[in-house]
Amino acid sequence: MEWLEVSVTIESKYQEAVSQILLDQEVQGLEIVDPEAFRQVYNDNKHLDYTDDGFIESFGKKVIIRAYFSSSYSIESLKHKLDTQFQEFMDWIPEYNILRRSDTEWKDNWRKYYKTFKISDRVVIKPSWEDYSPVNDEVVIELEPGMAFGTGTHQTTEMCAKLLDHVIKGNERVLDLGCGTGILGIIAAKLGAKNVLCVDVDDAACKVATENAQKNNVSDVVDIKHGELKDIEKKEYDIIVVNIIADVIISLLPDLKAYCSNKTNILLSGIISDRREEVYQVAKEQGYDLVSVQSMGEWVAMQICTGF
């Protein structure tokens, strides 16, 4: 699929006028990148865990408006049309460029960077399009990420995988909240868990997780459920995995107790290092004991356990 992308860089005071001109030209879609809007959201949300230093500044001060047009236009004809409209309604022509785009730019290109790799002592992650022969007692997980989070390359997922590799001895009941591709639940099953329930609020993630469980021949052990914690039958699990973000983890900690025995291990990841102490304090207040802490880059994972 191809289309033309028009990118206009302007001062914010011209945003409404330029947007309207573009909307009047049979545009198929419009995107506005406004640095001031980002700043407002950032200032109103002090706990934006995924905001890197310099993220807001990287947008500069000008607004970028992107409009998407049918590929039936030639770049020259579209430029002539826009120049005419800008000149007529604004008396000047703003800075802009036109590019011909194709979904092949991103659709499959990422695959060339996703290679087989070892995620923990016993576990190797293999993309479905690569071949790999396990060495010694390696457990190989075949993965097709699709549209879901969880390729195994992110530090939060890697720390969870290492913790699972450490705590699973065999025959455990495992609950994976926010399962994404199902990677952690599948790892648990391959390492010897008796049954695994993977849960996600995203339909696409559940579909991908189901396909990955089938690819790895663990569908008899791994169940996939669309929903959230409140939708799950209250019963005891030996291991609970929560790889989400700090705010969600904090909100779940009180309710997780209904799914714990007196010796449940809970593996928490997706915690930005600045919020490590906050998550720990809430866990402590809820009666959980801290077993271990891992850190990679700016991320932290915790193993806590019940002692109710």
What does the model show?
A hairpin with a 4-residue loop joins strand 5 (117-118) and strand 6. The model has no long low-confidence stretch (mean pLDDT 91). The chain has helices spanning 15-23, 35-44, 75-90, 155-167, 183-190, 203-215, 246-256, 276-285; strands at residues 2-10, 29-33, 63-70, 95-102, 117-118, 123-127, 139-143, 173-177, 195-200, 222-226, 237-243, 260-272, 289-296, 299-305. By secondary structure, the chain is an alpha/beta fold. The strands form 3 sheets. It has a 7-stranded mixed β-sheet, sandwiched between helices. Helix 1 (15-23) crosses helix 3 (75-90) and helix 7 runs parallel beside helix 8. Helix content is 29%, strand content 30%. It folds into 2 domains: 2-105, ACT domain (Alpha-Beta Plaits, 2-Layer Sandwich), CATH 3.30.70.260; 109-305, Rossmann fold. It has 8 helices and 14 strands.
Strand order of the largest sheet: 10-9-8-11-12-14-13
CATH architecture grouping of the largest domain: 3-Layer(aba) Sandwich
**Beta-strand content bin:** 25-35%
Which fold does the CATH topology of the largest domain refer to? Rossmann fold
Termini gap: 57 Å
Overall number of structural domains? 2
The CATH class of the largest domain is Alpha Beta
